[in-house]
Amino acid sequence: MKTMTCRELGGTCDQKLTASSWDEIVGKMTEHVMENHPDVAKEMEKMHTEDPQKWGKEMRPKWEAAAETSE
Ligand SMILES: [Zn+2]
User: Fold this and answer.
1) How far is the CA of 61 from the centre of ligand 1 (A)?
2) Separation of CA 44 and ligand 1 centre (Å)
3) How far apart are CA 24 and CA 58, in angstroms?
4) Which DSSP letter does residue 35 get?
5) Where are the domains of the chain?
6) Cα 21 from Cα 27, distance rounded (Å)
7) How much distance in Å is there from the Cα of 15 to the middle of ligand 1?
8) Using 50, 70 and 90 to split pLDDT, how confident is the model at 29?
9) Residue 19 CB neighbours (<10 A)
């Protein structure tokens, strides 16, 4: 498992999100911003429309670099 914060993933709070795979963290982050940060969700949607790869390109290296935890 790896833990990243909302902020590290382009959000605006320090909520920790834990997942075992990149796809899982993307799902959790999407759910989190839709529930908590409608503004961020809108920005991400806009970014996705302009370039579907952009967010992943920026965030995935951070995910890959995050330390594995046994939690
Ligand atoms: Zn957040």
Assistant:
1) 19
2) 13
3) 17
4) H
5) 2-65
6) 10
7) 5
8) very high
9) 18
The pLDDT of residue 70 is above 80: no
Structure tokens at 47: 């970014």
What tokens were used for 36? 């908590």
Burial class (CB in 10 A: 0-12, 13-18, 19+), 11: buried
Position 43 pLDDT exceeds 90? yes
The rounded Å distance from CA 25 to ligand 1 centre is: 13
The first and second tokens of residue 5, run together, are 């914060």
Strands (E), the chain: 2-5, 16-19
- Would you say the pTM of this structure is higher than 0.85? yes
Dist. CA 12 → ligand 1 center (Å): 5
* pLDDT value, residue 71: 60
CA atoms within 13 A on the CB side of 70: 0
